[in-house]
Amino acid sequence: MKRILVYALMALLGFTACDASNNDGPSPSLNTSFKFTHNWDDEDVSNVDFNTFQFTNENGDVLSIERLRYVISDIVFTGTSGEQLRFNIYNLIDVTNSEGLVYDLPFFIPPGNYANMAFTFGFDNEDNAQNYLDLNAASFNVPESLGGGYHYMQFDGKYLDVNDEAKPFNYHAIRAVDNTGTDLVFPQDTFFTVNLGPISISADAVIEVKANLAEWFRNPNTWNLNELNTVLMPNPEAQIKMYENGQTVFSLGQIVQ
């Protein structure tokens, strides 16, 4: 993983994101946490809602959720003048086991007005090539035959097929790869940056990041679980569709400070 020392160096150089008015001395540093919440078109979703057929996607497929976990990395705060605070960290959000739903940023940040706050869904290629003992222990790895590295997301459950029979789906997001030839081919990157927009921080803050799970199945690609359900990891076209659908999943929720 790229070194977290980037933050310390920027702090020493005097990073300032707050408005200069009413500022007579050095800005205090604040604790910031991220709270990840999940919904299906504004209906709250947690692990208590798992294993029951209560969700209907854009295609009309009725489904249940059995496992959901994904990784985010590289949190970036961009100041109003374009200066950036980059935190080269990662967090595994495991909804199934209610782990990682709250992430405390390991560094303080200065208060102020920020033009944008962003993070990476999954890992960029440099980070994905690193070795993470906790992710190894969680069996979050991708086989070397599919390029190695780590999953970006594991979203598993069941759906009712055209015969109203329960069938499994494994909506697993990884780096898109074509492994049908002698050498692995990576057609395009499928990690992506989530821009949450402007934010003002004046005190210790808990920032809610909302994930609308219904978006994984509809925008811009209407997902038919009768056609795309399992064995999606070696399917680069499916991975690119997941990348496209993921662009509208996350949004900024409440900020408590």
TrEMBL record:
The protein's UniProt keywords, in alphabetical order, are:
Signal
Question: Copper-binding protein MbnP-like domain location, by residue?
Answer: 33-230
Report the domain of life of the source organism.
Bacteria
PROSITE patterns listed in its UniProt record: PROKAR_LIPOPROTEIN (PS51257)
Q: What InterPro entries does this protein map onto?
A: MbnP-like_dom
Region forming the signal peptide: 1-20
Q: What is this protein called?
A: Copper-binding protein MbnP-like domain-containing protein
Q: Which species? A: Winogradskyella aurantia
